[in-house]
Each structure stands twice: as C-alpha cells, then as structure tokens.
Design goal:
The chain is α/β, with parallel strands linked by helices. The protein has helices at 17-29, 51-65, 74-77, 82-88, 94-112, 124-137, 140-145, 168-177, 195-208, 212-230, 252-266, 270-281, 308-317, 322-333, 338-343, 345-350, 361-372; strands at residues 8-12, 37-44, 68-73, 117-119, 159-160, 237-238, 245-246, 290-294, 374-378, 381-382. It folds into 2 domains: 8-246, Rossmann fold; 288-382, no CATH class. The structure holds iron/sulfur cluster and zinc ion (ZN).
C-alpha cells in the first residue's frame, strides 16, 4: 500500500501480538517516511481482569516506537464497559455487544485523530474464520463488507489489514523473535464467543490440508468483486443518537446501548453479579476426569520471550518432531485461547501430524504445562 504525503495512519492496538506486530512493522516500514504519521489507538473495553495490562503494553510499545498513543474507553462512547454490560445482560454472548462497540469506538477514535486509515492486526487465521463464519450464517451481505475497505465513505475511516495473509503462528514467532513484548492473555468472556468454534474448524482443516487458510481467503478475494456488485457500499446516514455513520436510522452500537440501558432499568443486579463471578472463577473449576487448568491469573501478562526457552528445551527433550513440537506449542500457548486449547489438548495430541501416542497425553500435557504454566489436575486433585 502506498501512503501519500501528509497522511495519518492509526493502528488499533490491543496490546496483543497481532496489533503489536502491526504497529512495529508499520513503524519499521514507514521509518523513512517522515511525511506519514503513525498513531496508536487502544480501545478500553472495560474488562477489569484483562484490559489494563494490554493498555500498558500498547502504551509502552508506542513509547518505544516514538509514536503517539490514545486510549478511548467504552464508557466514553457507549457509556458502559463490558463488565457492566455482562452484569446487566448475562444471557447474551458478550462479544455480540463488544464487536459493534469496538468498531464504533475505533472509528470514532481514528476520526478524532484525523486518521486517513486505521490499521488492524487481523491475521490470516482471523480472516479465514470470519469468512467461514459469515458463510455458515448465510450472511452474504456481511461477507461482502469484510475488510479491507477499498472505498472511502463519509465518516468511516477505511481499514487496512497488513497481516491479512500472514498466519497467526508466524505473527507470534515474529513478535517473539523481534522481542516485541505483548499481552499474552485471554479475555475472560472469550469462552462464550462463537469464533472459538470456527477457530478450531479452521485449525483442523489446515492440519489435514495445509494451505487451506490461504485457499479460503484467496477464494474469497476472487469472489469479492461479484459480492460487491450485488452489495455495493450502502449509502450512510448519521446515527440519530450519536452521529456515527450507519445504514440504518440508529447505529448498531446505540441500539445495543439502549438495550443494556433498558436491562439496567429493570435489573435488580443480583443474578448478573453471580454470573460475572462465575466467569471469573471458571478457570479454576475442575470437573472430574483429567483436565488442564490454568495456574496463572487470567490477566497475567508475559513477555514474548519468556515462553521460548522452555519451549526449546521441551522440543529437545521430547521425542517428537519439531513440527509436532511447534504444533503443541502453538496449541498450548495459542495466543489468545490458552484455556480453550488446554481443554482440547487431547484432540491436538491425537492429530496424526503430531505423531504422539494417545497414551502419553498426560505426560506430554505435563510438559506443555511446564511451558505454559498449566497444571494438570484430576478432579480437584493436582496430578503430581
Ligand atoms: S473476546 Fe469478546 S468480549 Fe472479549 S474483548 Fe474480544 S470481543 Fe470483547
Ligand atoms: Zn449511534
């Protein structure tokens, strides 16, 4: 992509590996372009056990890269953070609120800093998942509207996705090898996200037929012109509530905000608190049977480098192929789904490509535990 002189590029930075690598790469490639300005933007979703560390990582990276960093909280856009939203509406999947709220906030923040583009850290795996999710839902219009945006519409800052064709594992490795510190933790509400299912599906497809993720995205890119013919960019109105661009009279974020407000008015507050508490403590729950549970706090952050040494030691000591080791490492650390991966570790180890006997699952899980700080437990008793 060729930026013109005087343009400003905002990077949506969660503090995670993808957006940190995006900011790092853009800063590197724009290093000689003093006429193009880079600005980091972090959206604070208001998730107390998770987001503050990400904000801090993003802030520190921006400082290192010598770029400005801005934070915009949901409280300032939709009036409430996700912890409150989940407490008020415990039945709805939190991401159904969070996705529209974040798009709304990121666009507003990017516009407020007069950005010409907003770069996101979406990687190849994310893109393939989004395509399949929309196909599975039959939502062809949304499929047509997936970024990157090629048309500039009034009020909407076009999104660019520099890592769109880069596999998640490679982004992870790049961040580690470059010594980029990032927030390596999982959102406490991610367990309920539908995306997790598609993540597993895409991973299985890729394991069985390497190149599937690229094929899904390439196939989609060939279809895009046809999809755009059927669903050209819709005319946008200013939202009657907040003024943000929308195809409807009221934008999705405002519609959801009003829904939460109506819950607030009718809420006694006791049941939601119980739900939130259950989410916060769910990681230590240990149903019967051999399970892996995280021994670290959900919000704990680690340097990208810290996992590398035990991983290499593990690769050398375990009699599995490097590919298998990497696969296990990838699954076990798996970026932002550590707990989910740990729970499905048995499936991972049974994949033919890992060539690991099912009988050694517990032993290997213990080794993975040493890499990832998971401890193995049977029922409520830790396995020594
Ligand atoms: S997992 Fe869902 S709730 Fe958590 S930050 Fe992502 S979109 Fe928001
Ligand atoms: Zn609105």
């Amino acid at each position: 992509m060729d930026f013109r002189s005087g343009e400003r590029v905002a990077v949506g930075m969660s503090g995670g590996k993808d957006s940190s690598a995006t900011a790092f790469l853009l800063a590197k490639f724009l290093g000689d372009r003093r006429d193009v300005e880079l600005i980091g933007i972090t959206i604070d979703e208001g998730i107390a056990s998770y987001r503050p560390e990400g904000i801090e990582r993003a802030r520190r990276l921006c400082m290192k890269l010598g770029i400005e960093h801005q934070v915009l909280a949901y409280e300032e856009t939709v009036g409430q953070g996700m912890d409150e939203v989940v407490a008020l509406d415990p039945q709805t999947i939190p991401c159904s609120y969070c996705g529209p709220f974040r798009r709304h906030a990121l666009n507003r923040a990017a516009r407020d800093v007069h950005a010409d583009y907003v770069a996101t850290g979406l990687n190849l795996d994310d893109t393939a998942q989004s395509i399949l999710m929309n196909i599975a839902r039959g939502d062809v219009e949304k499929l047509a509207r997936l970024g990157p945006h090629e048309v500039r519409q009034p009020g909407l800052v076009p999104r660019i996705q520099p890592l769109r064709m880069i596999p998640e594992k490679e982004v992870y490795l790049y961040a580690m090898l470059r010594g980029i510190e990032f927030h390596d933790a999982t959102c406490p509400y991610a367990e309920r996200a539908q995306r997790g299912r598609f993540r597993d599906i895409v991973h299985r497809l890729e394991e069985e037929s390497p190149g599937t993720r690229h094929a899904i995205v390439r196939g989609y890119d060939e279809l895009r012109p046809l999809l755009h013919e059927k669903y050209p960019p819709a005319a946008l109105n200013a939202c009657a509530r907040c003024g943000e661009p929308t195809v409807h009279a009221v934008c999705k974020a405002c519609e959801l905000r009003e829904r939460v407000e109506s819950q607030q008015q009718g809420s006694s507050g006791s049941e939601p608190a119980t739900y939130v508490e259950s989410i916060r403590t769910s990681r230590s729950a240990s149903p019967s049977g051999t399970r892996l549970t995280s021994s670290r706090a959900p919000s704990r952050s680690v340097s990208a480098r810290t996992g590398l040494v035990p991983f290499v030691a593990y690769s050398l000591s375990a009699s599995v192929s490097p590919t298998a080791s990497m696969s296990i490492f990838h699954h076990s650390r798996s970026c932002d789904r550590r707990l989910r991966r740990a729970k499905t570790a048995e499936n991972v180890f049974q994949m033919p490509s890992t060539k690991v006997a099912a009988t050694s699952i517990t032993t290997i899980a213990r080794l993975v535990g040493s890499v990832c700080n998971f401890r193995i437990s049977r029922g409520s008793q830790p396995v020594p």
